[in-house]
């Protein structure tokens, strides 16, 4: 297994990523930052996972936000 020490997503599940972002930003702010229904209407981890696993463009937005969050958190 190849290690990726500079990749903030390495070893993180999508569930971990969403949970961390929700813990930091909250559902309301997350929905404002990434305007997708699973974040703005009756949000839950389960519904978000289902949608993001089936929608590559939305998952990319979430992963990009997570990378931004992690790199700025270290500063």
Automatic annotation (TrEMBL):
<protein>
    <submittedName>
        <fullName>DUF2132 domain-containing protein</fullName>
    </submittedName>
</protein>
<dbReference type="InterPro" id="IPR036361">
    <property type="entry name" value="SAP_dom_sf"/>
</dbReference>
<dbReference type="Pfam" id="PF09905">
    <property type="entry name" value="VF530"/>
</dbReference>
<dbReference type="InterPro" id="IPR018668">
    <property type="entry name" value="DNA-binding_VF530-like"/>
</dbReference>
């Amino acid at each position: 297994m190849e290690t990726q020490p500079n990749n903030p997503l390495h070893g993180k599940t999508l569930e971990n990523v969403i949970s961390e972002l929700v813990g930091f930003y909250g559902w309301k702010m997350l929905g404002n930052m990434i305007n997708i229904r699973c974040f703005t209407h009756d949000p839950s981890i389960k519904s978000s996972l289902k949608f993001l696993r089936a929608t590559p463009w939305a998952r990319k937005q979430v992963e990009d936000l997570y990378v931004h969050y992690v790199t700025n958190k270290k500063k």
